[in-house]
Design goal:
heterodimer; A: 201 residues; alpha/beta; Ubiquitin-like (UB roll); DNA polymerase, domain 1; 2 domains; two-stranded antiparallel sheet; 9 strands; elongated; B: 327 residues; alpha+beta; Uridine Diphospho-n-acetylenolpyruvylglucosamine Reductase, domain 3; Enolase-like, domain 1; five-stranded antiparallel sheet; four-stranded antiparallel sheet; 12 helices; 12 strands
Chain lengths: 201, 327
């Protein structure tokens, strides 16, 4: 069997192209918040451009005031690692780090993330080079269907950053906001432990 | 979500002014509000984002008189981890905070947001159901429908339960709350934040439109104060309470000299149980006493078709909370 030829326009590249075509010139950044006059700054309800600090880079993205951070990152920036599963903060699939803390990006407005540091699961790979934690998820077979995995990885990362060498109880606590229907929790904890002792490098 | 205008105030005064505009809602982290807006239960024309006021309205401080001042925008994670809450008098409040939702939610959710959140009744939370509390129908659908998570006490025409974890321990600690409405600054007993008559037509709280909660005040607790918070739930983590109990006791020479017992998740408001508390005062802790108190805490209960289990579990949770408080 040969690999099927490139189908030309994928759904994803189509969406990306249409978003770029519509970018307006008005933008807000963290600085715009700080320099507002006595009248409060007001945005929307239509589309406008904001600047998000994503994985260490300033990224412009066009949003409405009602756009969630998850939608802005997935649809606007094409960072589709974080998953939109329940969209109600009830699964943890959309977990990202905002200023180093785990959050459910589906219950956060994109506007609320302006001026804060956002870290997504994409920050853990650079081409074929991946973060030891990701390597250990592979080594420990810490996923089955893989849908919860990006969120699980981000909660695991926060756990490691906060605890160094977390205990079982600390891992259970820190992962308690991520649901895995396949039941991979035990192996996720193995992957965290392996990372904590320097494995996967 | 319907489109809205998003206002970024630079000061509390600006937020107060902006909130006077009709069809405006105030937003902290928005954990509950965004959820309701996605369901189209709320369709504001304007949202005033309070998060830029964190310098003014977030953080925990111990005042000169020993009182704990908890800023309205303090996150649950900040509250749980603050060293002021390490004292035994605040065990209940700290545990209740740490049991709420998930790490992701606690990292964002604010103290005021937790207290002011809308009920989780699945009928009123779904636009499809024509329920009385949502103003969409003539009757309470939970009363005769699927009501295993609903009220067993203190209900009249609506059997919703109050979902806040923080409200019962704050009531038990005799907390107060400060608000600002326009230029008016007010400070009241925490119990006044909840409707005395929690029928369907009344909202979960008594705030006026545009009134902003700025802080919660917890008075200095006398020596010998102990507290506890316990709840029953279907999952160990990441779940709502089916019943909850917060207690605050003052012990002197092995005798209970003051007691506050408050139930959560069993009534449309967090429910102080004065008669049960009174049974504790002047007594030495004992299993027999705590069993009597647990019975009194649920005296007069009117369970629905699918939730009489709450009486059995709820009484056990009361006994557990008392046991933990005197341990």
């Amino acid at each position: 069997m040969t690999v099927p030829p490139d189908r030309g326009v994928s759904r994803r590249s189509f969406l990306k192209g249409s978003a770029v075509a519509g970018i307006a010139t008005t933008g807000i950044t963290a600085a715009a918040h700080a320099t507002a006059p006595s009248k409060p700054a007001s945005f929307g309800p239509g589309e406008h451009e904001i600047v998000l600090l994503v994985n260490g880079k300033e990224r412009k993205v066009k949003v409405e005031t009602r756009t969630t951070l998850l939608d802005a990152v997935r649809d606007g920036l094409d960072l589709t690692g974080a998953k939109k599963i329940c969209d109600r903060g009830a699964c943890g699939g959309c977990t990202m780090l905002l200023d180093g803390e785990t959050i459910t990006s589906c219950l956060t407005l994109a506007m609320d993330a302006v001026g804060h540091e956002l870290q997504t699961v994409e920050s853990l790979s650079d081409g074929d080079k991946v973060h030891p934690l990701v390597q250990n998820f592979v080594h420990c077979d810490a996923m089955q269907c893989g849908f919860c995995t990006p969120g699980m990885v981000m909660s695991s990362l926060a756990c490691l950053q906060k605890r160094g060498k977390p205990t079982d109880a600390q891992m259970r606590h820190d992962l308690s906001g991520n649901l895995c229907r396949c039941g991979t929790y035990g192996r996720v904890m193995e992957a965290i432990q392996r990372t904590a002792v320097g494995g996967g490098k | 979500m319907k489109p809205f205008t998003y206002v970024v105030p630079q000061s509390l005064a600006e937020a107060c002014e902006a909130s006077q505009k009709p069809n405006t809602l105030l937003k902290g982290a928005g954990i509950d509000l965004i959820d309701r807006m996605k369901e189209r239960l709320q369709t504001p024309e304007q949202i005033v984002n309070l998060l830029p006021l964190k310098d003014e309205l977030a953080g925990v401080a111990v005042e000169a008189n020993g009182e704990l001042r908890i800023g309205a925008l303090t996150t649950l994670t900040q509250l749980e981890q603050h060293q002021a809450l390490a004292a035994p008098a605040f065990d209940g409040l700290r545990l209740a905070t740490g049991m709420t939702a998930t790490p992701q939610v606690r990292n964002r959710a604010t103290v005021a947001g937790n207290i002011l959140q809308f009920t989780r009744c699945w009928y009123v939370r779904s636009e499809a159901f024509h329920c009385l509390h949502g103003g969409r129908g003539p009757t309470c659908l939970a009363m005769t429908g699927e009501n295993r998570y609903h009220s067993v006490l203190g209900w009249s025409d609506c059997v919703r339960v109050h979902p806040s974890n923080l409200a019962p321990p704050l009531l038990a600690l005799d907390a107060e709350y400060s608000t600002r409405l326009g230029d008016k600054v007010r400070r009241r007993k925490f119990s006044e934040l909840f409707p005395a008559d929690p029928r369907a037509q009344n909202p979960e709280h008594t705030l006026e439109a545009g009134e902003i909660v700025t802080a919660i005040h917890v008075p200095a607790q006398p020596a010998g104060t102990r507290s506890a918070y316990c709840e029953s739930r279907e999952k160990l983590t990441f779940d709502w309470a089916t019943t909850a109990c917060a207690v605050r006791l003052v012990l002197a020479g092995g005798v209970i000299t003051a007691a506050n017992l408050v139930l959560g998740a069993v009534a449309p408001v967090p429910l102080p149980r004065e008669k049960a508390s009174a049974l504790l005062v002047g007594q030495k802790p004992s299993a027999a006493l705590f069993a009597k108190v647990a019975e009194m805490a649920y005296a007069g209960a009117s369970p629905l078709a699918h939730n009489d289990y709450k009486l059995t579990i709820g009484k056990a949770i009361v006994r557990q909370a008392l046991d933990e408080a005197v341990r």
